[in-house]
Amino acid sequence: MSTFTELTLVLHIVFGLMGVMAIYSALVVLMKDRPAVGFLRFMSVSGLLLVLLSWITGAYYYTTYYGSAVKPIINAGKFPWAHALMMEAKEHTFLLLPFLAAVLVFVVLLGSTSLLSDPRVRRPLAALAGVAFTLGTIIALSGVVVSGAVR
Amino acid sequence: MIDKHFRTLYAFAISASVTVLFIAIITIWADLYAPLKDWLKAMFTHHWIGKSVLSAALFLILGGVIGLLVSKVDENKIATALWWLVGCSIIATLAIWGFYLIEAF
To answer: What total number of domains does chain A contain?
Structure first.
């Protein structure tokens, strides 16, 4: 693996984990009756940007290296389901994340403080952040399984 | 209260709901129907890139169109659209994982 490809893999993981942490921070803020709007906006925008960066770096690694170099090793090893289930499901579930993070950002940036404090909107928005955080965690753990299956 | 941004919020929440379902459908369909996967590869160099580009395009275009068509959006409609997005995301996730679980074993 070239140094550049290694770098994209590392950045994909780092951006992804930081994005999940930012979305979790937004979730915690949204669970309060009066959310700190400034912090919520910062964390939501950070979450979206980090997820987008993880998407781009992951796309480079996945399309230029994984399929030709990693996938055959996993399929020939003891745990072929690590690719057939974990990687396939992870790479496609990941595609949902940017859109969930984008809607979160639209609402917290365009919505007024009173809208974000309104429980009718705050509750589904917290649920949305919760779903995004859960997906991000599942995707990260799946990545650990895929990495383990290569060794 | 009707806010000037409410239509945008509502439109993109609905658009995202459709987009996440689209991702699940095209993922499963492309795995079951080889010509679709081949077309994605031919058009976008890789099927995953194709799904990414088509999903982003659908989200932006549909969000824009819905934003132009809807009127009188209030807090309740935004809340309903956000709950729809939560539900559609869960359905899409279960569909993708369920499909690959069946495929893998």
So the answer is: 1
